[in-house]
Amino acid sequence: MNISLEQITVRQVNGVSALKEGELHAFGVYTILDLLEYFPFRYEDYRLRSLIEVKDGEKITVQAKIVGLPVLQRYGKKSRLTCKMMVDDWMVTATWFNRHYLKEQLTSGREIILTGKWDQRRSQMTVLDSEFPDKGTQRSGSLQPVYSVGGNITQGWMRKTIGKALDQYGEMIPEILPQEIMRRYKLVSRKQAIRHLHQPGDIEEGKQARRRMVYEELFLFQLKLQAYRNINRKRNSGIVHTTDNATIREFVRSLPFELTNAQKQVELEILKDMREPYSMNRLLQGDVGSGKTVIAAIALFATVRSGHQGALMVPTEILAEQHMRSLQRMFEPFDITVGMLTSSVTGRKRKDLLASLQMGMIDILVGTHALIQDEVYFRSLGVVVTDEQHRFGVNQRSILRRKGFDPDVLTMTATPIPRTLAITAFGDMDVSTIAERPKGRKPISTYWVKHNMMDRVKGFIAREIDQGRQAYLICPLIEESDKLDVQNAIDLYIQMDQDFPNYKVGLLHGRMSAAEKEETMRHFYSNDIQLLVSTTVVEVGVDVPNATLMIIMDADRFGLSQLHQLRGRVGRGEHASFCILIADPKSENGQERMRAMTETEDGFEVSRRDLEIRGPGEFFGTKQSGLPEFKVADMMSDYEVLEIARVDAVKLVSNEFFWTSPEYAALRDYLERQQVFQGELMD
Ligand code: ADP
Ligand code: MG
Fold first, then answer.
1. What residue ranges do the domains of the chain occupy?
2. Ligand 2 centre from 617 Cα, in Å?
3. DSSP 431-476
4. Model confidence over 165-202: pLDDT tens digits?
């Protein structure tokens, strides 16, 4: 069989006219294969049932015998046809609306199969569909596929046409999965799976068909990702970093703590990438407080010691400040120069900074996202570390390349998601995960209380501050420009300032100038402010180990991941820490989220629940979603298969026989025709 089904146009199916062919194009159906892979999204159940097992109001299909005379009532254009039937041993009244033409066929003693809604009390059935066994049945006794249709293409036509395509071409569907995989997972053949997805004889057949196609779909998808990754690696245009382990050790030894095993592991993964001639594209994920910053510092150190420059891109000026300070502290003994560029660095200062950068007198530049754009030129940019919010799109990459850079890119995210899901959502990235927190961290106890407990909460604040600790009090802020919420923060600040005359209370919100924010944060770092009333500007990355109490007002207005981020501002030192959520959520969903927060402290678990509650679209955000559309598989519920398929795909791509052995020829052919490898790997 040399001609394949993706080369035959759908016109070749009996009954598909030129007109219909054009209409099918609207559904993305051009070839026989497209049509065969146009799967139903659900099934109508026409299997015969007995009335005994049926609940009132259910839609059912039953076999009946006509026992009475049909009665037809007309109301203008409308009509109502009733007739007595025997179903099992019950007398049932069957009712049709607007099917007056059936009257002649309802002869006493004849068998009929009825599908409709069962009204137990009246012993009555409203018939939606009926067939006479003596004329041959089509639907009865089966599960009927329901396709997405529209325009001039009806459900019935689609069923019939796909049925014909299966009859004419079904036998030509080749197997593409490797035998060993088919055997390992006991998958049905592709031929059988496609047929049974359209025409499942029974539930089990449908299930097996789906299981096979889900695996196949996810497996092919993972093969594709592996291929992209390999293409990037083959491009070989990245910087080869030469810094050796001894030099890195010197830096790591200077840190005030020992790296956790998880940190050591990701350090290895990153350094390995940096030493290779391709440009790294790696996602570093770890729960809040797992110590990602120091990993970023190691990567930056490595690039500087290889004679290049590094950039650290963060979402806010507060964070830029903080990272600037901590990097300066870490790099001071090593004579590494750190500069900072934000929108508030202007005029003469900015000019000087940019000039030093271009001359290579600044080794590391910290800043907000303007950092790699516009008039900013590095002498030699080796590594860019970014925060998730600045995830590099293809555009930004090409901006960099146009400037002559192909740096290694490390993207950090504190919204950990299951590894495979991350790989899926973040496409061609490699993923490193820190799933362990530094030793000696005390757990953060989380409580959910109602607004009427505010007095007790204040007592709690006093207790912590009297013991020398510090506290955050967060107000919701939907948007930085949301005036109302800023007002909230200001009101709350005034109130707290009155309630706690003995403490210094600070205020932080997005409408303050950069200088004001900076000053407030400096006072909080140095414990000159004990209670900080703030909007969510402190959400990401702020690190004040002496702060042990996080109070979140109207907590139900935040997403789970955001709450977890906020909670992560405490529990960063040796003291026990607390998070108090203040909320009176009305909805079940809101209450569920509050409970979830009190029940788990593990960021991965929080993400999982968040994903569950909000669904992947909202979770990932529309902009960066880039989630693949699957025909059969569901990324959430088939998540385990996705994981298995990935392992299998990685193994297969790295198996040299994959590229040559006839065993994989059908799969290679299929992938090539689907342009999965874009020709680049199929030398
Ligand atoms: P993340 O960015 O992952 O939320 P940070 O990098 O800000 O976490 O680290 C949180 C705190 O833990 C910082 O104060 C940091 O100095 C400290 N830290 C990082 N790694 C370790 C470690 N291995 N042992 C002890 N403390 C660590
Ligand atoms: Mg951080």
1. 47-141, 245-275+291-413, 444-600
2. 25
3. EEEE--PPTTPPPEEEEEE-GGGHHHHHHHHHHHHHTT-EEEEE--
4. 999 999 999 999 999 999 999 999 999 999 999 999 88
